[in-house]
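Lecture 7 notes: from sequence to structure.

We start with a single chain of 123 residues. Read the sequence below before looking at the structure.
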Amino acid sequence: MELDIIEIRAYNYFATGNQGKQILQEHLKYINPLLTQLQAIPITYYRLSRLNFAPGERSTLQKFIAGVYFNFYKQKGDKLLLVIGEDIKLSYIQYIHQLQNVYYDLTGDVLKIPQSNSRVIAP
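Now the structure, written as C-alpha cells:
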C-alpha cells in the first residue's frame, strides 16, 4: 500500500523494514523523507489484541470507549470487517494506522499499545 501523507498522524504505527515504528510529534517535522520508508501494517487478530481489543459476545474482537463500540468480525479468508456501533461498516479499514485515525476521529483518544506492553507493533 502506498501511503498518503494525509493518513499520517502522531502516534500512528508503521513498519520500517522489518521493525515497527511509532510516529511521534517530532517526526512530523520531517515526514516527507520518512514517508518513503514507512509501510502500512495489516490488521490482524494478534495486533488488535495488543491494542486491547478483547473477544466480544458476537464479534471476533471488540473495544468500547466514549460510548462507541468498535467491533471486528471475521470475513472470508483472513479479512476482518470493522463495524462501529451497529450501523457503520468499514470494509476498507485494513491497516493499523487507518484504524487509529478512525478511532481518534470518533473518540478524540489515541489508540496505542498500553504502557505495560510498550513494544511497538511489529510488521
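The helical segments are 31-35, 45-50, 96-107. Keep this in mind for problem set 3.
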